[in-house]
Specification:
The complex is a heterodimer of chains A (about 325) and B (about 625). By secondary structure, chain A is α/β, with parallel strands linked by helices. Chain A has a domain of about 230 residues: Rossmann fold, CATH 3.40.50.970. Chain A is built from 12 helices and 12 strands. Chain B has about 625 residues and is an alpha/beta fold. Chain B has 20 helices and 24 strands. In chain B, helix 19 links the parallel strand 23 and strand 24. The radius of gyration of chain B is 27 Å and the shape is globular. The chains are: A alpha/beta (about 325), B alpha/beta (about 625). Bound molecules: iron/sulfur cluster. Iron/sulfur cluster binds next to loops of chain A.
Chain lengths: ~325, ~625
């Protein structure tokens, strides 16, 4: 990250009145993103924000960059077109959990597997906010909402597991309230070449307040946050006396004293196999107890639009720039006098 | 051979036109056989028109009626418009092909039969209780029995290709025989084989041997006393190529990019019969064409729209079911007022319907198949070669008016061919629209919806342009582009979007009226019915009757003179391959009592059908 003072946060603010509910976690994320953009060092005219529909999707209106507030679920598809057409742009997708994983699930997984250079920020509040409080694809089983008065019977997605299964090359999780951590993850996502999937736990104080209290509450957070740091042993707790081991492909929380520090798993975000990252993602199926936070996976793979550019370049080197008249005549012609 | 042949001494009959149908099992290579014969005829200089008819299944059970695939080619020494109502010659590679096609054959037509396939098993599969070669049921035709499989195998003896592999070349045997019978040059087919199978010398040799054996059989066997000669057509001078509609469309998209000085971004999801456009464009990376095979139809439209936002010419192609899925994105394109080209190669519907057959039944979906008040321009392609020009016109409208445009083609146009006078690319219109690069509002601000006074188009500022950062979206906005929910504003904006599309009428040519003085009846057609309608009209005129004809390229808005022209006729006939969709639009727009002539059989109109209908109307 460059620290050039080209921009301040104000440069990324628009004249639009921000219309989220007071106290919504989206405000914090917006501030983190605007601050990060001021530091990122990319000219703001080269930045594009694309969103779908939902509370989170209002985001582009508040970012003084290029932006499209598009269609429910379709942001990754539209952003793919922008990034593939213009690889020099910095393209960011903002989506809620319903937007990204329910109506837009197909676009999300395909953007990830193609490794298009999109930074996909999923604001996961585990509820439908804009439509006033129905259960979402990340709501916990049994959740009582307007559309599930007897309790939700939909087994929820684990967004990190989903992204890993979709062959994402960069997968991370952060928390709205933790601005320093959010900024660090944004930077890691930005510096990654290819698609980056960032799950941001976001509090909806109107329809699903305190959903993340286990990770944000003063008493609970140190007990439950499992920080993932590349190259370091996965230990957590106020006294760093709990840790994670991976055995037979399954991760398990142990007491460090019981197994000995040598047995504790060393996190390698760049591991060729997604297996260990997947195992870590299975430690929690929702933010209700000990939950890993940080970069699960960050690996290099050819970037879709770069490979396409290369194909264009190679074809031009081999065949020349293309002569349409010659192409049309190439299928065989005859002349009438 | 629809006209009386004149027999000369050399036993070569001169005929003006002949329609030949190659029919066989879908594994028999009949599309390929037809295409080879067509190319040789094109190079020989005939005018021609083709029609491909194939099953939806890749491999329907062998030997059955649903598995029959056919290719009809109509060649002529003069200008022709359709693949021919009735084939004069039927090449039947098996009993099912005979059964499925016999009813179309012209009276006393020629049937060339691969007798080797007429065994008990194949006869039973085709549902023949008795062998039609033996029961006299074909007596009204001229039947030429050829054991093609046996002869192909024998021709390949010593080539190293044996057994079932040898049988694969039997389609070339059939092409060879037809090449002799219609006195086509051998070279085009031999050259094609040599280049196509350059890397498979055994296959190349086998196909060559089979092709020559077919030709030689004709030359040496008593049974084939007659050959037929169709002289080159007197087409306007120039250089021609033979083109399918999908190919012309793909090249037209590339030409539109050049005419607009924009890179092409074509996003699509595989769907019959539009996939060939994707295949063709994907081959041309060296032209800078970006193709994107999306995860679904919705994503294809979305990616194309994203590319347009980023300053490319975004194009998405599909067929009916895909157009339904894209409608949500098309509405966003309409609301954000971005250029987007949507190509619908129509097929028989609804639902999966008849995926390999043709229909024109998506017109009302193109017109009204979106949520909210969402008018957009619609253009239609009339013939395979016409696709090239129409797609450039569609792009012109999309860019000039900052709007999505739907282009309607169909399966018949997409897969059939006609000779095409090579276009002079230097005469392509300049359809480029400069990007906005400077602020247009007070205090160096950018107002994304500040409209051009004449076209009502908004400025196109693309990412990367400093100072013009702006946000577009699907929410209703006020005149400047800020989100607005006020009641009067929504009505104002709805009328504005509607007015912008209506205004395009002033920027498109008048409809060309092909009329006899004193005609009472006006035929209005659109899309692929062009050839059959014109051929039908010519036949009616040949009887001394008077008729007028319009073929519409612009379906929304209509050409500015259309209402006035219609007012000059007592009756209006609208033939179309649907249940009367254009007819409904004309009735609604001009309050006229148009007579609909609908057909929904998955097949194009025949000239004879149009002739009969017109004769009935004119009296
Ligand atoms: S409904 Fe929830 S997510 Fe939406 S703005 Fe209000 S607090 Fe935020």
């Amino acid at each position: 990250m460059t620290t050039g003072a080209k921009y301040t946060r104000q440069d990324f603010q628009t004249d639009q009145e921000v219309r989220w509910c007071p106290g919504c976690g989206d405000y914090t994320i917006l501030a983190s993103v605007q601050n990060f953009m001021a530091e990122m060092g990319v000219d703001k005219e080269k930045i594009v924000f694309v969103s779908g529909i939902g509370c989170a999707s209002r985001f582009p209106y508040y970012m003084n960059t290029y932006g499209v507030h598009a269609i429910h679920g379709r942001a990754p598809a539209i952003a793919s077109g922008i990034a593939v057409a213009r690889p020099e742009l910095s393209v960011w997708v903002v989506a809620g959990d319903g937007d990204a994983m329910s109506i837009g699930g197909n676009h999300l997984i395909h953007a990830l597997r193609r490794n298009i250079n999109l930074k996909i920020l999923v604001f996961n509040n585990q509820i439908y906010g804009l439509t006033k409080g129905q259960y979402s694809p990340t709501s916990e089983l049994g959740k009582r909402t307007k559309s599930s008065p007897s309790g939700s019977i939909d087994f929820p997605f684990n967004p990190v597991s989903l992204a890993l299964g979709a062959e994402a090359t960069f997968v991370a999780r952060t928390i709205d309230m933790d601005r320093a951590h959010t900024t660090e993850i944004l930077n890691r996502a930005y510096e990654h070449k290819g698609s980056a999937f960032v799950e941001i736990y976001q509090n909806c104080n109107v329809f699903n307040d305190k959903a993340f209290i286990a990770l944000t509450g003063k008493e609970e957070r140190d007990l439950n946050r499992i920080p993932l740091v590349h190259g370091e042993k996965v230990v957590f707790g106020p006294d760093r006396d709990r840790g994670v081991i991976i055995e037979g492909g399954t991760a398990r929380i142990v007491s460090v004293a019981d197994v000995g520090i040598d047995a504790i798993h060393v996190h390698d975000a760049t591991a060729a196999s997604a297996g260990p990252a997947y195992a870590l993602s299975r430690l929690s199926h929702g933010p209700f107890g000990p939950t890993p936070i940080g970069v699960f996976r960050s690996v290099d793979r050819p970037v879709y639009e770069e490979t396409l550019q290369q194909q264009i370049h190679d074809a031009q080197a081999k065949k020349g720039g293309g002569d349409l008249a010659a192409l049309i005549a190439s299928a065989g012609t005859w002349t009438v006098a | 051979m629809s006209e009386a042949p004149t027999i000369d001494n050399s036993e070569t009959e001169q005929v003006h036109t002949v329609a030949i149908r190659f029919a066989g099992d879908s594994g028999d290579g009949m599309q390929l056989a037809g295409a080879r014969f067509t190319d040789a005829s094109a190079i020989f200089g005939n005018d021609l028109s083709t029609f491909a008819n194939f099953p939806a299944e890749i491999r329907a059970p062998a030997g059955t009626l649903p598995g029959v695939s056919s290719f009809q080619v109509h060649i002529a020494d003069r200008d022709i418009l359709t693949p021919g109502d009735q084939p004069d010659v039927l090449v039947a590679m098996n009993p099912a092909a005979l059964k499925a096609n016999l009813m179309d054959l012209a009276p006393a037509g020629i049937i060339v039969i691969n007798t080797d396939a007429f065994d008990e098993r194949n006869l039973a599969r085709a549902g023949y209780a008795v062998n039609p070669l033996e029961d006299g049921s074909l007596d009204a035709y001229r039947v030429l029995k050829v054991p093609m499989e046996d002869l192909t195998k024998r021709a390949l003896e010593g080539s190293g290709v044996k057994g079932r592999d040898a049988l694969r070349s039997k389609n070339f045997f059939a092409v060879g025989l037809m090449t002799w019978m219609f006195q086509r040059p051998l070279e085009p087919t031999l050259e094609w084989i040599a280049s196509k199978f350059a890397r498979e010398p055994e296959v190349k040799a086998a196909n060559e041997l089979a092709f020559r054996a077919g030709f030689n059989l004709g030359e040496t066997t008593e049974m084939f006393r007659h050959t037929y000669r169709v002289q080159p057509a007197r087409l306007p001078a120039g250089t021609y190529t033979n083109v399918t509609g999908n190919q012309a469309l793909a090249w037209g998209i590339m030409a539109a990019g050049q005419a607009a000085r924009l890179p092409i971004f074509y996003a699509s999801y595989p769907i019959t019969p539009a996939s060939d456009i994707l295949h063709e464009l994907a081959r041309h990376r060296n032209f800078g064409v970006r193709t994107f095979q999306a995860e679904d139809e919705i994503a294809a439209a979305g990616a194309a729209l994203g590319a347009s936002f980023a300053g490319h010419l975004g194009v998405t192609g599909t067929s009916g079911p895909g157009l339904a899925l894209k409608s949500e994105t098309i509405s966003l394109a309409l609301m954000t007022e971005l250029p987007l080209l949507i190509i619908d190669v129509q097929r028989g519907g609804p639902s999966t319907g008849l995926p390999t057959k043709t229909e024109q039944a998506d017109l009302l979906m193109a017109m009204y198949g979106r949520h909210g008040e969402s008018p957009l321009p619609i253009v239609a392609v009339a013939t395979p070669a016409d696709a090239f020009e129409v797609v450039v016109e569609a792009a012109r409208i999309a860019l000039k008016y900052m709007t999505p445009v739907i282009l309607l083609s169909d399966g018949y146009i997409g897969t059939s061919t006609e000779p095409w006078l090579l276009p002079d690319l230097a005469t392509l219109p300049d359809i480029s629209v400069p990007f906005t690069v400077a602020p247009n509002g007070p205090d160096a601000t950018f107002i994304p919806y500040l409209r051009d006074a004449k076209t009502l188009a908004r400025p196109w500022a693309v990412p990367g342009t400093p100072g013009l950062e702006h946000r577009l979206g699907g929410l209703e906005k006020d005149g400047a582009g800020n989100v607005s929910y006020t009641p009067e504003n929504h009505e104002r904006m709805t009328l504005l979007r509607e007015g912008k599309i209506r205004g395009i009428a002033a920027d498109i040519p008048d409809a060309v009226v092909d009329a006899d003085d004193g005609a009472d009846v006006l035929v209005i057609g659109w899309g692929s019915s062009y050839g059959a309608i014109l051929a039908g009209v010519r036949r009616v005129r040949a009887q001394g009757k008077k008729v007028a004809r319009i073929h519409l390229r612009h379906l929304n808005p209509f050409p500015p003179n259309l209402g006035a022209v219609i007012g000059g006729y007592r009756r209006v006939l609208v033939p179309e391959l649907n249940r009367g969709q254009l007819s409904r639009m004309l009735r609604a727009e001009y309050l006229i009592d148009a007579t609909s002539y609908p057909k929904v059989q998955g097949q194009p109109f025949k000239a004879a059908e149009i002739e009969a209908k017109l004769t009935e109307m004119i009296g």
